[in-house]
Amino acid sequence: MARLADYFVLVAFGPHPRGSGEGQGQILQRFPEKDWEDNPFPQGIELFCQPSGWQLCPERNPPTFFVAVLTDINSERHYCACLTFWEPAEPTQEAVCSEDAAGREEEADEGGSGRLSPGTSGPPGQLFAPKTLVLVSRLDHVEVFRNSLGLIYTIHVEGLNVGLETVVGNLLTCIIPLAGGSQRTISLGAGDRQVIQTPLTDSLPISRCSVALLFRQLGITNVLSLFCAALTEHKVLFLSRSYQRLSDACRGLLALLFPLRYSFTYVPILPAQLLEVLSTPTPFIIGVNAAFQAETQELLDVIVADLDGGTVTVPECVHVPPLPEPLQSQTHSVLSMVLDPELELADLAFPPPTTSSSSLKMQDKELRAVFLRLFAQLLQGYRWCLHMVRIHPEPVIRFHKAAFLGQRGLVEDDFLMKVLEGMAFAGFVSERGVPYRPTDLFDELVAHEVARMRADESHPQRVLRHVKELAEQLYKNENPYPAVAMHKVQRPGEASHLRRAPRPFPRLDEGMVQWIVDQATAKMQGAPPAVKAERRTTVPSGPPMTAILERSSGLHGNSARRLEVVRNCISYVFEGKMLEAKKLLPAVLRALKGRAARRCLAQELHLHVQQNRAVLDHQQFDFVVRMMNCCLQDCTSLDEHGIAAALLPLVTAFCRKLSPGVTQFAYSCVQEHVVWSTPQFWEAMFYGDVQTHIRALYLEPAEDRDPSQGWEEPAEEERSALDVASEQRRLWPMLSREKQQELVQKEESTVFSQAIHYANRMSYLLLPLDSSKSRLLRERAGLGDLESASNSLVTSSMAGSVAESYDTESGFEDAETCDVAGAVVRFINRFVDKVCTESGVTSDHLKGLHVMVPDIVQMHIETLEAVHRESKRLPPIQKPKLLRPHLLPGEECVLDGLRVYLLPDGREEGSGGSGGGPAVLPAEGAVFLTTYRVIFTGMPTDPLVGEQVVVRSFPVAALTKEKRISVLTPVDQIPQDGLHLRSCTFQLLKMAFDEEVGSEKAELFRKQLHKLRYPLDIRSTFAFTLGSGHTPGRPPRATKDKGPSLRTLSRNLVKNAKKTMGRQHVTRKKYNPPSYEHRGQPPEDQEDEISVSEELEPGTLTPTSALKPSDRMTMSSLVERACCRDYQRLGLGTLSSSLSRAKSEPFRISPVNRMYAICRSYPGLLIVPQSVQDNALQRVSRCYRQNRFPVVCWRSGRSKAVLLRSGGLHGKGVVGLFKAQNAPSPGQSQTDSSSLEQEKYLQAVVSSMPRYADTSGRNTLSGFSSVHMGGHVPSPRARVTTLSNPMAASASRRTAPRGKWGSVRASGRSGGLGGDVGSRLAGRDMLGPPQANGAPPDPGFLRPQRAALYIIGDKAQLKGMRPDPLQQWELVSIEVFEARQVKTSFKKLLKACVPGCQAFESGPTSFLRSLEDSEWLTQIHKLLHVSVLVVELLDSGSSVLVSLEDGWDITTQVVSLVQLLSDPFYRTLEGFRLLVEKEWLSFGHRFSHRGAHTLAGQSSGFTPVFLQFLDCVYQVHLQFPMEFEFSPFYLKFLGYHHVSRRFRTFLLDSDYERIEQGLLYEEKGERKGPQACRSVWEYVDRLSKRTPVFYNYMSCGPTATCPT
User: Fold this and answer.
1) In whole angstroms, what is the distance from residue 1052 CA to residue 1048 CA?
2) Is the per-residue pLDDT at 1423 higher than 90?
3) What is the distance between the alpha carbons of residues 1331 and 1385, in angstroms, rounded to a whole number?
4) 947 FRET partner, CA 20 to 30 A, in 263, 874, 879, 1421?
5) Residue 1206: its pLDDT value, please?
6) SS3 state at 1302
């Protein structure tokens, strides 16, 4: 029984003490005047009566009513029912407010102007003051409060003949029952009657209609969002203009949280004076009047729910985790069915007659029922994770959060994790975890209805039926007697507030009210105290969670076969069949990735411990430890699946004898796991074991029974600890005091003994076997963080744990002393403090434990020293023999083999498992570092693969990324340091060093690798040291000792070139592959698929079989001879030192650069117009970057148009030339002689070209059809020459679909070629119809108005330059990519092809997406696009000058591709070699710089410009396989060796540098016999004589050397 009302208070408007315009509340009277002993008078009531502030109003407002909630220091809520009415202000009150009239009016408008009545009742200027009747109660009977206060107001207003003192006195003395479903009729003595019904169960919240109103105001999604926010401890703020709505909304939200109780700040109506409370750092649910919305705008972490506007605003910085799926979607759909039942019928053709919808009160209960079901589904099986730590004198219960999350499969779920860590759930465990207590609807639901809810999931109507059943029970709880609720309470008449009141509310007689209260108190003292009849019972636990999971989803990914493999392997180990066990071990280690297999392993090992088979021999011990480590490696720090918990007893059981008296236990070999250093794990384990022993303590009497009653034993064994505890709590009051004391002492000693046991266990697993590895252990196991871990995470593992403020030392002190023993002692002491305090261990016992812990640790350290000493004497485990790699001639080992494991790197092909066979990775072997390569050789760790040798290698020079990693060794599952090496040859080595390889050796390997990758000087590379006796330590020899001077060389250069030009050019012989019987076997692949490594036997070939002895290894024979031969083949002029040149020839070979004085990156001999003097070339070169002025590199044999190349333009020169519209003025020309010379030079180029315009008989690859360019391989009979024919093109135009290359070849409108090519190269849209190939659309295509010379330049460089159409040349600006973009793109391409780790989404789609993101193919497309259009221009008779960037990257790519597409000679083996030598080597592509060959180039990184060119050639080769004499392997071979630094061919950046280093010549007497090849071309020639590996058998191209 309890008082209906504790206090009645009358509060009126009074002046503010500081004299401001606002007033303040004053308590006029309160009854009773003395505080109740059990319930003191709450402070601050006057603030809550008028939450918006006390203000006078110009009109008399109607009375208002709302209920505010105050929470006292004991977390008890007091309900303050406030009825406010307005009376004419007294003169003193008016005087107070006249000081600030303007402010008063403003606030009156803001505050309650919406509630003003149209009429006024008083003279003009009359003000009205508020007065409030307040009822304070600890009970929540809102309607009774409304009626009672309304009755008092009615008596006053209507002037009824009833004494107000009597009514107030009766109200304060009314006693009603708390719960139990009873009803009580009360009367206050004014002819009134009210019926009060108490709920059946007081644990269920009373919501009336508040939940239904909340959903109507905010909607389903918003309410769900608020629900999750409140559960995950976020700040929630409600806004409304109605105070009653604020109260209802807060009440409704709390009702939804049942069975959890909200334990943070709860203020449904917050007064304006207390708005700073909103800045509190703790979570809250608060309601504020919408008039103060502006003050809430600055709150960055508060979720604001506007009840009037129906919105919920979640700040950006706040993340509210949603409910886990599928509960979120299921709850949403059920809520919509409850709120909108007609939604399901909306689409029916014949809807049923309208069904009667539930009343608002019933709908409220239905909505609550949905959330009750939700909690039952969320917390199903929670009682199986409760640990009963103590039963007497009071239950102590802890919740095993990790086990609950693990068994539910929700470890990653953010929502449930936060709920379990919250204060509300801590209260839930302490309140509902008690095994013997009254039960309610939730207990029944979570225990007995879970199966039904799971079965109903897919049947919405069944779910709805269940919801309605629960709603009926909730409704009955609130309204046990729905038909009897008959109230009779007088109400004031209509508009009674507008009538002039006869007098203000009178002052009541305190004496009379107090007398009535005293009379009632005296009566109550004589009556017997009412005892709350609680029907306590054992709380049902419901089905265990494992059964629910097995029915719900197949989370066990292990098949029965895998579990059988695990069992067999363990059987073989314990039976001593080690060979059989070794065969099964890899399969077992793979199976142990699954949870079921790990559990199976623990169960099997446990059986062997029970059979006294825990003492093992060395091999058995190693096997068991390896499997245990594999199990533990996937355990998180919380051990949510209980694997570490299951293995903990086993690691202290299995052992081996090292020597007499010295035994090594398994725990010394499984310490490298984070779970052992997690306080929450130890707490959960401790509480679990304590529960087991406490249960056994009370089951012991069962053992003393007669053996003949053994059939009862299973029943005893099946009783859970909670059942035992429930029985003990029931019997507790009946026991004698001595018996009670005995049980308390038994439990306390049980906990104490377990604490000692766990102090030992923790020292076993935290103290390292080798004290020298103490720091290593601390780093890995997290011991360095133990100082703070226990304090910061103390509440995370058990709900309800309270963080104790321990007097801890600083964590830094421990780091300085590196005292592992001290750290372990402190860690164990903190653990002991926490668990013993929570478990009720006496302080004397706790002190004794603190004394024992250091002794336990010290004893264990002494034991470990002996074990460590003896374990060192064990013979080492026999490891596989290291396989030596086959080295190339001249290749030397820098570092001998370091034992490593080669791990899978994310490529299925690389591991061998893609074909369905056994995986060759991981492999165990050694890594070797030689002067040329990084080589791994080894054998697969899986014995089922057999004796297959695994070899992986790549050139040191190709290394692009080296990264340290920490990985688990595949055999022992021990964390080890490793290396991740990636090369630009698309090789990857992911290695873990064996434990025998110390960190010093691993660091030495890294340093040597770096030194070899980036040598200080180019002469230290493998290509230089090979066969020369030169070692990296010796200084390079001076050039002048062995070779002639540069001046002598320049004379020889011109002389030899004249000889070459003078000889008649002979038709090239076609390459003939060696006959079958003369072919050698394909070389052994010791390097890579690309790197053919076997050298020929001595004496097979003469040293320079490809060249005449007289020309051997001279400058002219190597490079200039090749260039000059090509110039003569193309008919590009003569070489003459006299002035009598052959004027008939338009071009000549100029030796002006023979001393490399004009341009160091150009060759010595250059093709220039006949009419240009040598002395003018110096001035022309100043206009171009790097002095790379335009020179001719190829001429079309048919149209006689020439292809020129140069560097990009400087800011002056051509810029000034093109800015003038028609012709430059004489003044301009004279002011800049370079510009004038440049203009003359370009004019000379134009003048040198004949106007030749024949379009027939092209033999180029520019006319390929759209079908072929779309990626379709043509048939062997398809000839390019026929595709190039305009007639064939026009015929195929009607049939061939336009491919993706249509835009590249699409000819423009018939208005001339010039402008159109500019737009096409610049990427603009074409106006004319696209053609099927490169043929012109009509004869107008080649009109005489076309430009004679097109200059292709960079768009950014030539921005704003508008060429004059009357000029004979046209400037075409295009957008090209830069070298850094090529570098970035290649990095992404490399990562896509060689990922390094298993991709999250495997499959071709993922690879193709990564390939597209790299933009590599986009760049390839751009290069081919530009090249094809240049070919078309040359075919049409216009010459082209390619003038991009510095002239040595993209320029080289474009001119090389143009020549390859236009001239079949370059598609032969000899021609392609000549093309590379001429355009890439002689014209100065920076191979060393782009390949980062030396330390100086390390910062620039690897930029594969040449590789990109080879890829372009490969793309063309794919589409026209019959047009190339060489195979794609030839391109791969060159691509591999241009970065390998095995040959000298691709070293250095120009011919000038190669002459300086002595690479372009060799003294005649220097070679004494056959040596290793120094040139890649020489190696290709040698290999081609043995095997046709570079020859393309599909080739059927023309063999003529010149296109005619």
Assistant:
1) 6
2) yes
3) 32
4) 874
5) 92
6) helix
Residue 1340's pLDDT is 36
- Rounded-to-integer distance, Cα 960 and Cα 1384, Å: 12
Q: What is the pLDDT of residues 478-509, one digit of tens each?
A: 888 776 656 777 777 776 666 666 678 888 88
Of 167, 169, 173, nearest in space to 154 by CA = 167
Decide: 557 and 596 in contact? Cβ < 8 Å. Answer: yes
Torsion angles phi and psi, residue 556, rounded to 5: -85, 105
- CA 526 to chain CA centroid, Å, is 72
Q: 1182-1216 as b/e, with b when 16 or more CB fall inside 10 Å?
A: bbbbbbbbbbbbbbbbbbbbbbbbbbbbeeebbbb
pTM: 0.61
Spatial separation of the C-alpha atoms in residues 1443 and 1538, rounded to whole Å: 25
Phi then psi for residue 30, to 5 deg, are: -140, 145
CA angle in degrees (0–180, nearest 5) for 675-775-962: 90
**60, two tokens:** 């008399």
Length reported for the chain: 1604
DSSP 585: H
CA torsion sign for 118, 124, 125, 129 is negative
Specify the DSSP element, H or E, that contains 69. Answer: strand 64-71
Residues 6+ apart with CB under 8 A from 189: 162, 166, 167, 170
Q: Report the C-alpha gap between 1270 and 1128 in whole angstroms.
A: 37
Rounded to an integer, what distance in angstroms lies between the CA atom of residue 678 and that of residue 875? Answer: 35
Residue 149 predicted with pLDDT over 70: yes
For 922-967, write each residue's pLDDT tens digit.
888 999 999 999 999 988 887 777 678 889 999 999 999 888 888 7
Q: Is the pLDDT of residue 11 over 90?
A: yes
**3-state DSSP assignment of residue 662:** strand
Tokens of residue 835, six digits: 């668990």
Candidates 1458, 1450, 1439; CA nearest to 1314 is 1439
Q: What is the 3-state secondary structure (H, E, C) of 514-579?
A: HHHHHHHHHHHHHCCCCCCCCCCEECCCCCCHHHHHHHHCCCCCCCHHHHHHHHHHHHHHHHCCHH
Cα(196)–Cα(309) distance, rounded to whole angstroms?
A: 35
Structure tokens at 1386: 């290649």
| Contacts with 96 (C-beta within 8 Å, 6 or more apart), sequence order | 15, 16, 19, 21, 23
Non-local (6+) Cβ contacts of 1008 within 8 A are: 894, 895, 929
Contacts of 849 (CB under 8 A, 6+ apart): 752, 755, 756, 759, 832, 836, 841
E-strand ranges in 1335-1488 read 1349-1354, 1369-1374, 1439-1443
Helix 360-378 and helix 327-339: axis angle, to 10°?
170
CA–CA distances in Å: residue 1494 to residues 392, 403, 1005, 1490, 1507 = 78, 57, 19, 10, 19
Question: Are 226 and 314 spatial neighbours (Cβ–Cβ below 8 Å)?
Answer: no
Long-range pairs, 889-893, Cβ under 8 A, ≥24 = 889/1026, 889/1027, 889/1095, 889/1572, 890/931, 890/1022, 890/1025, 890/1026, 890/1027, 890/1572, 891/930, 891/931, 891/932, 891/933, 891/1022, 891/1026, 892/930, 892/931, 893/928, 893/929, 893/930
Token pair for residue 890? 């001249």
Helix residue ranges per DSSP H, 896-965: 908-911
Q: Are 951 and 868 in contact, with CB atoms under 8 Å apart?
A: no
- Give the pLDDT confidence score for residue 1365 in this predicted structure: 52
Phi, psi at 129, each rounded to 5°:
-105, 140
CB half-sphere exposure, 1459, CA atoms < 13 A = 30
Give yes or no for a contact between 989 and 1022, defined as CB atoms under 8 angstroms apart: no
CA Rg, the chain, in Å?
A: 47
Residue 1004, both tokens: 């030495």
Which helix (H) or strand (E) segment holds residue 937: the answer is strand 933-940
Q: Count CB neighbours of 129 within 10 A.
A: 22
Spell out the residues 6+ positions from residue 1174 whose beta carbon is closer than 8 angstroms to its own.
Answer: 1150, 1152
